[in-house]
């Protein structure tokens, strides 16, 4: 580690749970972020500032004025730009050493199969069930840890699904793909601006913990936040043998 890196990451290095070895693991890691909006913004900024060596960001959308209420990686000057390019600029302004790969595309199964295989940790920051299930399937297939977050109105949740852990459920264990869920979008339901920051910061924290082995990850624990009362609730979840993605029959 170079002298300027020792200075930049000194507050991590001072932590017994991270130290020089853990920071070196962070510097050598590759994170895949799917979605560069409300959740993806704080995730990208925190992972970049923490020194994750390579960050791939996937999103097909462009920056819109309505995004600026909560999507802190973007600015007025970048309205109309692809979100992934805006996020790349934001990360670069904080930490130019980070190698950011922006991908302007919808995260379909074929693209995810390629990108997940290359990553050390995957962060689901998207806003629809179809993409979430495609991300989960790729993570199970390639045995990559997945940090999933969601936020709408005043309610948020985050969980870690780690196929490397035999007791860990996958996303489909908790939200089966054949179950009908009502799609809730910020454009129609609204979202409390700091909520996505809280959930996104939690996702970034879980990803960094997974990378460097610090602490206890949220594997098999669904953490839910009621932003109105600012109350957290944790629910233990286990792998389902009948799961169509990770169950014993599949």
Provide a descriptive summary of the structure in words:
α4 (40-50) crosses α10 (193-212). The protein is of the alpha/beta class and 250 residues long. The termini are far apart. It is globular and about 50 Å long. It has a single domain, classed as NAD(P)-binding Rossmann-like Domain (Rossmann fold), CATH 3.40.50. 38% of the residues lie in helices and 18% in strands.
Tell me the number of structural domains: 1
The CATH architecture designation is 3-Layer(aba) Sandwich
Encode the helix/strand succession as letters.
Answer: HHHEHEHEHEHEEHHHEE
* Main β-sheet description: 8 strands, mixed
CATH class: Alpha Beta
Poorly predicted ranges (pLDDT <50, ≥5 residues)? none
Output the strand order for the largest sheet. Answer: 3-2-1-4-5-6-7-8
Could you say which overall geometry the principal axes of the C-alpha atoms support?
A: globular
| Count, helices | 10
Q: Averaging pLDDT over every residue, what do you get? A: 95
- Rg, please? 17 Å
CATH topology: Rossmann fold
- Tell me what portion of residues adopts beta-strand conformation: 15-25%
Tags for this entry?
250 residues; alpha/beta; Rossmann fold; eight-stranded mixed β-sheet; 10 helices; globular
Question: SSE layout and pairings?
Answer:
Blueprint: H1 3-8, H2 10-13, H3 19-27, E1 30-34, H4 40-50, E2 54-58, H5 83-94, E3 99-103, H6 109-118, E4 121-124, H7 129-142, E5 146-152, E6 155-161, H8 171-174, H9 186-189, H10 193-212, E7 221-226, E8 231-236
Parallel strand pairs: 1-2, 1-4, 2-3, 4-5
Antiparallel strand pairs: 5-6, 6-7, 7-8
Helix pairs in contact: 4-5, 4-10, 6-7
